[in-house]
Structure formats: structure tokens, C-alpha cells
Amino acid sequence: MSSPSPSPARGRLNTTIVFLATVAVVVVAAALLLSNGRPGASPSPSTASPSEQASASVASPGSTSSASAGSNQPTELTVGLGYIPSVQFAPFYLAAQAGYYADAGLDVKFENKIDPDLITLVGQGSIDVGLADGTSVIPAVSQGIPVRYLATVYRAFPSIVFAKTTSGITKAADLKGRQLGIPGRYGSSWIMLQALLKSADLTPDDLDIVEYPDFGQAAAVQQGAVDAATGFVNNEPVQLEQNGVEVNVLTVDQFVPLPGPGLIAGTKTIESKRDAIAAFISATIQAMQEIEADPAQGLQAATDAEPTLAEKPEAQRAVLDATIAAWKGSGDSTSFGTIDREAWSKSISFMNGLGLVKEPVTVDGLVDDSLLGG
Fold first, then answer.
1. What pLDDT, on the 0 to 100 scale, is given for residue 374?
2. What proportion of the chain, given as a percentage, has pLDDT over 70?
3. Domains parsed from the chain with CATH numbers
4. pTM over cut 0.85
5. Which of 30, 100, 229, 370 is a plausible cystine mate for 95, CB 3.0–4.6 Å?
């Protein structure tokens, strides 16, 4: 998307999840519901997990990768996901378990990393493919990190503002003069908040912003310590609703189409493993489409990959449903993977206005949709 980190002594609200949200997002770092990592994008501490080194056989026919050229050996791909295993990564788990990657001639190993580390490692070639927030890619490329965004996973930007319905906050203008919790003034949540406020002719100075470095803003909202907070559409609102708290969610998509988490790779890796990466993307999108049609498949794949996710299936299903909705955005499963170049252009302009683009960048220098199927 993308994922967040656990917050100490916060009761039921401190279970973990993620997309990724910088501008990015983004992505990055908030407590996930029931061991759920956030949309693969957002700042959070790295933690090891028994399934962190889970690997799966996978590959692409006719790969021109140096690892498989002229041989029947599968092409090895190291794939970086959000910082902890999560139901939101169900397509990757399903594609591995169902043999889609192996049938494509790939040998895939998953690693869990936080968004900033992931982008750097992908740029260095230490990780072949990663799930990272588009708003993180823009400033990274502007600073010379050689990565490209190859396929969209979250068409709806997952970073949001949420508030209890009893707060009376139903639109951006209602935030004026209110207390708002946020992990910090960085990442996708911070970018999203500025875009949301700008739509109502507001700035962060018009709010009383309270920082929660331990990502405990969801608990703060429930307890009434703040009126609203930033979070992820498949994380904090789901946590609160699971605890019987009705919430309103404010999104930024209708104001600035910020690019959400998607698949990225380094430019040199794209050159050396182009066919393998294209096959990986195709197999992953196939799994996304199957999960959209039958979410139970995705839930089973996730619990098979990380058994602890089976402890509260109803909550995990709620997270998965919210994740699928974010994959689709305003489209449907036929649009999975596609990249909206016009939206990227608008995002570049917006982020440039915030001073987040160190050196000029273009859409062609950020995205490469040539690896998507026809």
C-alpha cells in the first residue's frame, strides 16, 4: 500500500497491520489490526517474523534474466513487502501457494521491510521487486534513487483522516480548529493531510496537530484525546469499527489523485530480469482478481502464510475487504495494475509545490508500464 508498527499499552487498538502511506507515503508505519501490516508503505520499525523469510517457487517463461537465460533454471526474485506479514499481502501469498509464480518460471522469496528501506534496497538491486508507495517514489527518484513504478496495487490512496461520527467531522473544512493526531510530519499521511486541507483552503497551522510517534492515534481518537487522526483505510477505521466505534473517513482522491502503493523495481534489475518481472506482475494481478472475486481465497492464503492471522478471522476479513476496495478505487478488477499517468503528473506538481521534489522529475522518469500485460 504501502505499513505501520505496533504501539505499546494501547489495548485492543494496538494490534498491528498497514499501504501504504513520503509523500509518500507513504507509506509508512502505523499499528496494524491483528498483526496486519499497513499497505506496504509508511514509516515503521522493522521487526522479524517467522514468515518473514517465507519463500515460494515462481517464474516467467522465456525470461531473459541472466539467472535463467539459456537454461531451465527458474529466475530468482527477491520481493519486498510491508514490514510484517499481513492479510493485505494475500495476492502474493496466493500466487506463491497456487503455483502461479512457479508456472511462470520464477523462484520467489519474500522479505518484509519498511517503505524507506525498501525503496533504497530496490534501487541498489538488493531486492528485485518491492511494494512501495507512489508518493515515496517521487521524492526518491528526484534524489537520484534509480527505481521505477511498474504496476498499481492501490488505486485508491490508502492514507486517510478518520474521526468518530459523534465528532461532527464529515468534510475537510470541519477540521479547522480541531485536534488531529498523526505519527509525525512526514510520509504519506503528512502529504495526504496537506492535500486534504488545501481542498478546504486550510493549512496545518489551522489545526492543533498532536504527534503520536508510537502510532497510538487510533486509541487517542477512541478515547477522545483528539478529534480526528490520520491513518490507513484498511487499518485504524477497521480497528475502531471492530470495537463498536462508528467512524467517518475523509479521503483525498477527489482532490489530488496521489499515487498509492504499487510494484517497483530498480532500473538495472528491470534490464536484467525484465521478462521475469513482467511474469511476476502478471501472476500477482491474476491472484488479485481471484481474491476480488472470492475473498475467502485470499483470507485462506494469508492464514496459511501466517497462521497467527487465523486467530480472529472476522477482523481479518474486514481488513481484507477494505484492502480489496482500495485496490479497486473507482474502477474494477479489470483495471488492476494499470497506471494513471495524468494522476501522476498532477501528483508531481502538487508535491513540487510542497518542496518535496529535490530535482525535476517527469512521469516517464518515474513509471514504466511496459511490463504490464496487453
1. 58
2. 81
3. 11-156+260-371 (3.40.190.10), 159-250 (3.40.190.10)
4. no
5. 100
